[in-house]
Specification:
The protein is mainly β. The chain is built from four helices and twelve strands; from the N terminus they run βββββαββββββαβαα. The chain has a six-stranded antiparallel β-barrel. A six-stranded antiparallel β-barrel has the order 7-8-11-10-9-12. Catalyzes the dismutation of two molecules of 6,7-dimethyl-8-ribityllumazine, resulting in the formation of riboflavin and 5-amino-6-(D-ribitylamino)uracil. It catalyses: 2 6,7-dimethyl-8-(1-D-ribityl)lumazine + H(+) = 5-amino-6-(D-ribitylamino)uracil + riboflavin. Its EC number is 2.5.1.9.
Length: 215
Amino acid sequence: MFTGIIQEVGSMIDVKRQDKAMQLTIASEKLTKDMHVGDSISVNGVCLTVTSFTPHTFQVDVMPETFHYSSLSNLQSSEAVNLEPALQPNGRLGGHFVSGHVDTTGSILSIRDESNARYIDIAVTKGLQYLMSKGSISVDGVSLTVFEVREDTFTISLIPETRKATILGDKKAGDLVNIEFDQLAKYMERLLDHRKSPQPSGITTETLAQHGFLD
């Protein structure tokens, strides 16, 4: 579990591809100081597992499912990535609950600056039902507030600190970003769908009688 508050911008040292799997070696000066093999770490919003590390780098594996559903498949050596370690029980929840399980990718349509804000329009092909103005969303692992929702796009607004502390400040039109929709919205949809068409429990008066619950 993560919060969407990026702790460090790392750099890709090596990208090894094998069919639809990858092994990534990432440079990190901050997070490796308190790292263990098996730790969960968010890389551009994708929850991955640390397989090895040195004082200045760590390695993670990308499985075929993650390769298919995220933008990690496009990573190149020397590219910057957003990094966040898993939330500790006594940590601050500064953003919102982010699982690191990417729902889809979005394509940046346009970027415009207005005063101290940078507005980014992002196109997605699914999941717009989870979005609402002032709601939460994770973009490349960054917890953000949805500024506006339209038919097949939504807009986020970046403050100067977010542009400086994450890779979103360097994005350009045409770039792909990892999208994770708000978990609460997805749980609510699942609950409502279940209430509309509840599944039979399999418990009948006959089975109750067979097991001695009815005379």
